[in-house]
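Spend some time on this chain, tokens included, and walk me through the fold:

. . .
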Amino acid sequence: MFRLMRNTHLILGLVFFFFAFIFAVSSLRIIYRPWLPNDREDQKQTIQIDPANAASPRALAVDLMRHHGLIGELRDIKESDGLMKFLIMRPGTYARVEYVPGSSEVTINTQRWGWQETFVQLHTNHGFHHEYLPSSAWALLSLLGSIALLLMGATGIYLWFCLHEERVIGSILLVLGLVYGLTSLIWARMV
């Protein structure tokens, strides 16, 4: 049993190292964002379209994705005061689209972030309801990574418990880790 647990612990650690690295870097970026440089690039462009392809926000988004190189999923649709607005997004890139129905021009404000902020957007990506397939695949990988990290913790505790000479120091570290984690969680919820 010890060998199985050791191999499981090792394989999960190797397979999900990159996943854990992305979450570690993005956590640091979230915490220290005010102190880090903003690596966003903004670009504004106007595109000519056929008004017949813009009967609805979804139809216009599909046209922009097929013929004008936008990639992502449609979100945040708003129609008011004769103006249609929506977002075509994927981690690392947001394209804010504005269109006056019946006209032949679309204004697109594109925001592109560097790799650190893209990691943050991957970190905060949630759910399996995405139209953009890579986002749904990432959500599945996140679920598998979370399960793997729980299994790594469980197998690590088992391996530690099997080593009799390490139980005292391991118990102290385990209790300190639990106290630190619970204190951080309670403090974060109270603030």
In short: The helical segments are 2-15, 17-31, 57-67, 115-124, 133-162, 167-190. Residues 83 and 100 are 5 Å apart (CA to CA).
